Structure prediction request, 405 residues.
Amino acid sequence: MPVSVQYDSVWTGATLVTLQEGRYSAIPDGAIAVRDGRIAWLGPRQALGPHDAREYQDVGGGIITPGLIDCHTHLVFGGDRSREFEQRLSGVSYSEIAAAGGGILSTVRATRDADEDHLLAAAEQRLALLMAEGVTCIEIKSGYGLTLDSEMKMLRVARRLAERHPIDIKTSFLAAHALPPEYHGRADDYITLICEEWLPAVAAAGLADAVDGFCEHLAFSPAQITRVFEAATRLGLPLKLHAEQLSSLGGSTLAARFGALSADHLEYATADDARAMAAAGTVAVLLPGACYLLRESQMPPVAHFRQQGVKMALASDSNPGTSPACSLRLMLNMGCTLFHLTPEEALAGVTLHAAHALGVAPEQGSLAVGKWANFVHWPVAAPAELAYWLGGQLPCTVIYRGRRR
Ligand SMILES: [Zn+2]
Prediction:
C-alpha cells in the first residue's frame, strides 16, 4: 500500500497570487494544501500528488491572495474628531482648534477618560470592518494615553482584541507620540521618564512587540528619539518611527541607523534617507490616508525607494485625527492614485512588505510552504481589481490559520 500524504484541507479553483518576492507570481489553476493551520503544499493543481484530505474546497474561479496586513494603525482610542473635521472645513484653523483644547490632546483626554471595556468595544467595531475585507494581521499603537497607566490600558485592549478575534495583532508602544500637557516645556524630562520607567514596565508586562516614536518639530527631536531607541534596544525591543511626515529632520536615516523595522509616512524623505533605509533593510511604510486628509502636496519619494530597492508597505494609519480610515483596500487605490504605486507594488505593500514592517515575514505575508494558511479568496478576474475599485466592499472569503473565518 503506498503511503498517502495527509492534509486537513485542499483549496482549488482559483489563480494563486502568491506575492512571493513581492511580485504577483501568479499560479493559474492552483491548489493550496493545509495542515495544522499552515500551508503544507502549493502549486498548479495538476502537480498535486496523491494525498488524502478531510476537506476539499473548490472556490469556483477568482484569485487567492495572502491575508492582508495593516502594519500601521492607531485603532484603539477614545472619542472621535468628526466635529473638528467639520470646523476645519468651515475655515477654523488647526491652531485655533488646538488652542480650544481640540486636536490630538482631545483624543488623549477621551482615551484617558474611557474605561478599558469602552475602548475595546469601540475598537472592535473598526476592527470588524478591516477583518471583513481580508485583514488577517494588524498592528496597533498606544500613544493617546501619555500616562503609564493609560498607555498600558491601550496596549491591554489590543491584546484583548487578539484573544477575542481570529486575527494576529502586533502592538507598538508609542508614548513618544506627543508631549502630554503635564510636561509642557519639559520634553526632555518626559523622554527620561519614558526611557527609565515606562519602557522597562511595559517590557516587563509583555505588552509591547515594538517601540515607536514621532520625530517631528511638533513632537520629538532626533536627539530625543535617539534616547528612546537606545533604551528600547537595551530591552531588546524592535523599533519603528513616524518620520519625515511634515518636514525633513533625518528621522528615517536615524531609524535605519538603529536597524528599525520601518520608517513611516516619509513625505519629506530624501534620496540619502532611501539609501540608508535600503542598507538597513528598513521598510518604508506609506500612509496615503493621512496625505489625502491633510491635502498634503509633498509625496513620498517612491522613485528613490524603487531605485534603492527599499521595500514599500501601505497601511491605513487608522486614527481619529488625520486618517479616520477603516479600509485597507481603499489604501491600495490611494497608494496607486496619490503615490503612483503600481497595483502590484500596492498589493505587496499590504502583504509581504507589510509583514517585513512588522517582523513577521517568516510566518506570513505571502503564500509559501511553512507559512500560516492565512489567505483570501476574491471573486475577481485580476489582482489589479483589488486596487481598482474605489471604496465599497468586495465580497471575499477569509481563511485564518487554515479555517474559514
Ligand atoms: Zn501613525
Q: What stands out?
A: The domain at 68-358 is CATH 3.20.20.140 (TIM Barrel).
